[in-house]
Specification:
Layout lengths: L1 H19 L5 E9 L5 H12 L8 E7 L2 E4 L4 E3 L18 E4 L3 E8 L7 H8 L1
Parallel strand pairs: 1-2
Antiparallel strand pairs: 1-6, 3-4, 3-5
């Protein structure tokens, strides 16, 4: 499953970032996904199970879907085609070879817990 690999990579990136910054947990991740990726629903589905046992367990996944935009050379304008499978200018009907947006896959923001977790021994001493 391709989406599980992507979820695992996101989790690894966010966990490494939390570790480098001395934070305990990742509470959220913001991702920009182009509509042509076609994985938003599947990524949501596998994200929760993939976070189990990691610094990201319980983190919220926020996905911003980026619409498809092409550049029409004939009109010399950016346009939004009528469908993902037909990369033609909606105004003049000519095909476009240049996709401006809609293929993105980018981790844009990581939300971290304010305080790092206490080691188990230190937490027991605090409670006593």
């Amino acid at each position: 499953m391709h989406e599980l690999t992507i979820a695992s990579s996101l989790i690894e990136l966010a966990s490494d970032h939390a570790s480098r910054n001395g934070r305990g947990r990742v509470t959220g991740m913001h991702v920009r996904l182009g509509v042509m990726c076609g994985i938003a629903r599947s990524l949501y589905f596998c994200f929760g199970p993939a976070t189990r046992g990691t610094r990201c367990e319980g983190a919220k996944l926020h996905i911003e879907e980026v619409p498809l935009t092409i550049f029409c050379e004939h009109c010399a304008e950016a346009r939004s085609p009528l469908s993902l499978s037909n990369l033609r200018c909606p105004d003049c009907g000519r095909p476009s070879r240049k996709v401006l947006s809609g293929r993105e896959m980018e981790l844009t923001h990581i939300e971290l817990e304010d305080e790092p977790p206490q080691p188990a021994a230190q937490a027991r001493q605090t409670l006593q």
